[in-house]
């Protein structure tokens, strides 16, 4: 359309029409063509307006200015405003050579097929921004019409006879009308361009475009196609350009060379991961997550720990976090597989069982990790804040809780796959198969389910973790000031504060952006797909990648174990050439409730002969009876509250 506007050339004529000449010409509304008239409202555009003007080549009647252009320079009319509600039949009957007719912004409500009688040479007809409600075989008197622009009218229905006689029509623009229904046989004659964008069309049937074999460009932007399928576009063999509302629709027309929008921020027309940075870091993050958690699992299994229940919880957490690494690894692998031709496989990929399964694994990893961190946090909180009312967790209770967490995680992750009738394609709303955000959720159930998980369960768990650590830090600070010297107290609190801060800040970095994203989605704020891709690849796996470091690799017991291994290696190396030496197996000493020693005292404590033996014995008695949290976090704060300065000399 812009091409046509730039090509329109308006020439000045050799003479101007006077009022008397116009009157002699038979104009039914003499006042409308007076040069000094600034506002003119023509309710009816009369049949003799263009009588005997055989040489006219183009006519332009716009809301801002109306002009008539001829090669013989017969007339020029300009007005500030032209409103014409009705074009009567025969108004252009003498314009046999007219090729371009532009009627923009004229508030035309009604016209018949006979309105354009006599326009046998007309090629271009523009009826932009009028008020037309219906069309009745508009090309009946214009056999050569090639370009028809009806943008910005009030059309509600396109019938099977609306364009019945438009045999040479190649360009049809119907965007920004009120079209809700299109007859099955309405489009059957167009060769080049069809634009029906931004109409409230309720349904596009499978065979709507079957007869448009030669169509090269199809624009259906702004239209939600709930029943979209490949069958709709397969007959369009020569189609080179197509324009959709959503990038996901491009997967239903894989044979089309150019599809817009060409990205949803996550994927592009060529690649599953559109951004080169994402394509690189998906491997970095997956490797860090997988190998970090595998290393911790192996270390926990190799080193004989006195606290097997705590080790079981950490191993369970690492297994959950490791699933996130597997998920990212699979996304990276399929990105390589589809490299350069993703659109050909996009829809099949998002509907595939592989996408559903790895999406379920990501959801399982996320939810189990959140629940396990909440459980471990509550264990710490109860042990530190209520040390003398704390009951040590037994083997059966710990196993039951862990089993329940995993079962609950499986239910959350795989329920959308079992109940497909309610959730439809829950995980297949984007190329990375994670339902963090979708422009249009598949169903109401899927939308509500996503909100309940991310803004319900996960938000509550996050608040529990943050508030519990804040309460623990407050209690440690309050108790420590009563039992230690000022300098030691400051050092201890700085150490504890650093660990608490690192745990809480990683949870915050992971979940606060997700909560904000879901809230904005709930408020129907337009969220760029690029943000979602960065959240899924970088932010969501933060906890999975850092949990091994926070809960194992940076703890004091782990560091001491590594030093012990290194010292043993240095001591053994000079003796290897002489004779083999026996060294005791490694023991990971963790400050945790001594479930296994609740019926007796530690042998080392009972045989202690150095000064302070009684204090140590009393210390272990209290520990065996009441239980104790991590040594690296709470030190001796709660015990010192009872023992006072008698225990300050202990180097535990």
TrEMBL record:
Transmembrane annotation, as ranges: 276-297, 309-334, 357-378, 399-418, 444-470, 500-521, 527-546
Places the protein is found: Cell membrane
One cellular component term from this protein's GO annotations in UniProt: plasma membrane
Signal peptide: 1-19
Highest taxon above the source species: Eukaryota
InterPro entries hit by this protein: GPCR_Rhodpsn, GPCR_Rhodpsn_7TM, Leu-rich_rpt, Leu-rich_rpt_typical-subtyp, LRR_dom_sf, Relaxin_rcpt
Topology in membrane: Multi-pass membrane protein
SMART domains on file: LRR_TYP
Segments forming domain G-protein coupled receptors family 1 profile: 292-551
GO BP: any one term: hormone-mediated signaling pathway
Broad class of where this protein is predominantly found: membrane
GO MF term list: G protein-coupled peptide receptor activity
PROSITE patterns: G_PROTEIN_RECEP_F1_2, LRR
Pfam families given in the database record: 7tm_1 (PF00001), LRR_8 (PF13855)
Cytoplasm is among the record's keywords: no
Keywords on record: Cell membrane, G-protein coupled receptor, Glycoprotein, Leucine-rich repeat, Membrane, Receptor, Repeat, Signal, Transducer, Transmembrane, Transmembrane helix
Designated name of the protein: G-protein coupled receptors family 1 profile domain-containing protein
